[in-house]
Every structure is written in structure tokens, then in C-alpha cells.
Amino acid sequence: MIIYKTINLINGNFYIGQDSKNNPMYLGSGILLNRAIEKHGRENFKKEIIESCNNKVQLNDREIFWINKLKPIYNIAKGGNGGDTISNHPEHASIIKKFKQRPIRRKTELERERQRGDNNPAKRPEVRKKISEAKLGKPRLDQLGELNSAKRPEVRKKISEKLKGIPKLKIKCPHCIQTGQPSNMYRWHFDNCKFKKKRIKHVSINRL
């Protein structure tokens, strides 16, 4: 894991980036850097290692540090894991203007009506054929249960054999003396036992 510096050998401008795989062929993914590479040619750029890091957190922190310290021309974002590539973009004003002027496309009631019923594109024979071909070989919803490995006889037999000899834990409800497995007992008995509720009701009536 390294922090690197990609230098333009023609004008001295450079780019700071991080490379977790330390790939010598990777020069960076910056917008301005790639425009410069297209303009001047890849052969006019050189990559230098600035610092080695031990983990991703350190890599992000050191990238932010070096970008803030050296203030490279080709970097738009502040570094780290992703970044804001709009705020510092040289064409920031035009990008924001285009975004605000972008029309919001909403379907009219007439367009919605045209796609209902028999006009629904999914009901066209050619579309249905494509959908059918895409689903070919895939299990249907009603077949998913059959594909569950735990329902196969040989798997169920193995599970049964493994559980043989293991005693099942049973507990008793103090209100109705019913016994059973903990999951069901705690759900339907103990604090939720109907006999407990009757007993509480009986006691409360007697105390009045």
C-alpha cells in the first residue's frame, strides 16, 4: 500500500494518489490527470512512491495529508476513500448550472394509459420470449422448497443420526405444569401462560 506522485515531465504538474496493490502501471484515476495524459502522452509521465502504509485507514489519512501539503494541480478531491469531485472542479459553475437546468421528466397520464393492459411492453410476444429465455434453467418459486438441501432425505437422515443420543432440554411451566422445549414454553407459558392470567384475575377479585 503506497501513496504515490504522478509527475508530468513536460510542465512539472503532478497528481497525488493511493495504490493499495502498488501497481507500477497504474498512474491514477483523476479527471484532470487523465486529460493531461491524453494531451501529452503516457510516456511523458512518471510515478514516484512518496510513502508506504500498513493499512487502508492509514492510506486514506496519508493521502489527505499529502494532497493538503503539496496542493497538486491534477487533484480535484481532498483525498481519502472517495471525495467531493465537484466543489473543486475547474468547471464547477457550469456543472452546477447544467444540473439545475436539467428538466425533470415525468410521465403524463396519457403515457401511463398507453402502457396499461395490452399496451404493456411486457405483454408483447417478443418481450415475453426474451423474459422466458432469461428465466430458462432457473428454478421457479414453487420449486425453491424442493431445492432446499435440508429437505433432502439423505440430509435429513444425517441430521437425525447426529442428534441421536443428545437429550432434548425440557422445562416445566410453574402455572400449568406443562412441559416442553424452551422456545415454545417461553412463548406460550411462564409469563404468557393463560392459567397465570386467570390466577392473577382471581386474586385481584378476592382482594376487592
Features of the shown structure:
disordered C terminus; alpha+beta; 208 residues; extended
In short:
The protein is α+β, with helices and mostly antiparallel strands and 208 residues long. The chain has helices at 31-40, 56-70, 92-101, 109-114, 125-135, 144-147, 153-163, 182-188, 194-207, and strands at residues 2-8, 14-19, 45-52, 171-172, 179-180. Among the domains are: 2-70, 3-Layer(aba) Sandwich (GIY-YIG endonuclease); 171-207, no CATH class.
| CATH homolog superfamily of the domain at 2-70 | GIY-YIG endonuclease
- The percent of residues in helical segments reads 40-55%
Shape descriptor: extended
CATH fold-level topology of the domain at 2-70: GIY-YIG endonuclease
CATH class of the domain at 2-70: Alpha Beta
Q: Strand percentage, roughly?
A: 5-15%
First CA to last CA: what distance? Answer: 77 Å
Largest sheet: 3 strands, antiparallel
Number of helices: 9
The second-level CATH architecture of the domain at 2-70 is 3-Layer(aba) Sandwich
Rg (CA only): 34 Å
Round the mean pLDDT to the nearest integer and report it.
77
| Order of adjacent strands in the largest pleated sheet | 2-1-3
Indicate the multimeric state: single chain
Order of helices and strands: EEHEHHHHHHEEHH
